[in-house]
Amino acid sequence: MRVYDIILKKRRGHELSGDEINSMIDGYTAGDIPDYQMSAFLMAVFFRGMSVQETCDLTMAMAHSGETVDLSRIHGVKVDKHSTGGVGDKTTLVLAPLVASLGVPVAKMSGRGLGHTGGTLDKLESIPGFRVDLSKDEFMEAVNETGIAVVGQTASIAPADKKLYALRDVTATVDSIPLIAGSICSKKLACGADAIVFDVKTGRGAFMKSEDDALRLARLMVDIVRGAGRMGAAVVSDMNQPLGCAVGNSLEVMEAIDTLRGEGPEDLRELCLSLGSIMLVLGGKAKSAEQARPNLINALETGAALSKFADLVSAQGGDVKVLDAPDTVLPSARCLEAVPSARSGYISEIDAEKIGVASMILGAGRRTKDDTIDPAAGIIILKKIGDRVEQGEPLVMLHTNDWDTLEPAAQLVMSSYEVSRDKPGVPELIRYVIQG
Q1: What is the rounded distance in angstroms from the CA atom of residue 146 to the CA atom of residue 236?
Q2: pLDDT in tens, 383-399
Q3: N or C: which end of the chain has fewer CB within 10 A?
Q4: Co-location of 416 and 283 in the same domain
């Protein structure tokens, strides 16, 4: 079949067959289809969309474009979680050991962060000695022995997605819901989990600014993984302000440890309980989310979840003293500066995206994939939506090792806060839950 005919068919709004989609993905991955033709195809998809079946076919073609991971050597139902990303989103650091402590194996393969702050791997690597480059055998053995492991994805996982994303990035076709869903789900399916829970963020600090778009994406991804014979569920959660109070790699590890001790911020704890309840149901350890929730709370209160995090750190070579003295083990910044409020009142809005960009300026994130992250850099949020603040009182504390970054970061933070005379309502954290 000719590439020209496939592009024309999609441009006219017709549904493509699985064979036609496989032909495009296989040909492009092999280098037989040039960028200019694939760009035309992506633009046709952007404007004409894809049916659920087309998106499923696209996802599976991308998932099978490279290595697929067989997790059958790991005992039990393997449940994974994916977040579409946000500011201060350290959920995996709490959620994975929490769920694993209740008997659901977590065999997680993650990518690195690009943008606001580091990804899960970057955060864990702020713990001295922590290895994310385990071999397959080491990975499987760690999960079977401790119930949990978190490692980096290899370049051989869904290589078609890597090529396509680079092309989407320069052809203004990134924000297509079928293409987003295919990109995310192809990597997750290739990594071999039996069940996947998606946390789709919505709001000013999220990729999906519109709640309706976030809901569409969540439903589509659940449909895709179920169509692939896996179990799936999703939540749509708020990202109109940072999650928790810490933004930045070692700062987020400290907050995650506090949360595992039962002392963390309420929004982070609530999100982990909500996601964890779904993961326990999919993992066969609870009949309902309502039944699962008390077990998760008990794992936090008894220290079982914190102990499982210690198992993770120890098994992957990290310094377990981080649990008892995180402020002395983790990297800390030399330069700290408070950003004061310009007026008194109540915090009515926080532009989470600006907070994320400010943390990147301080050194906590990457502008390009080749940038080096400073694990000590970041921001501690002192005032969130609904809090009372007095003029001159600190809104945040900036952490960096580069004095020159403080002023531009502070200016961005100040512009991200809105203060009003009347106390506003706090945004609802969990907007939707999609379960089977």
Answers
A1: 30
A2: 999 999 999 999 999 99
A3: C
A4: no
